[in-house]
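no rush on this but wanted to send it before i forget. what follows is a protein written twice so to speak, once as letters and once as structure tokens for the fold. mainly i need to know what kind of three dimensional shape the backbone takes. thanks a lot i owe you, the record is right below.
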Amino acid sequence: MDRNSELARKGRRVGLLIAGVGVFWILITMIGAQYGWSQRTRALFDLAALAGFGLGIWMTYQLWRARRNDED
């Protein structure tokens, strides 16, 4: 497997992670509103989603650096 296809695979993984976290966050917000969860419980899931988005940003940065190093 060449380097470009490996980077493309990692890019797809990052995209799926960010999309999955977004869908999870929307669903949990709707479920929490429907069942009347406390603000504290909803905030816990908001922090989990924030951590997921932070991981996505970190993975995107690593991917950018890997592609930039390949160009040099």
Observations:
- The chain has a mean pLDDT of 94.
- The chain has one domain: 14-71.
- The radius of gyration is 16 Å.
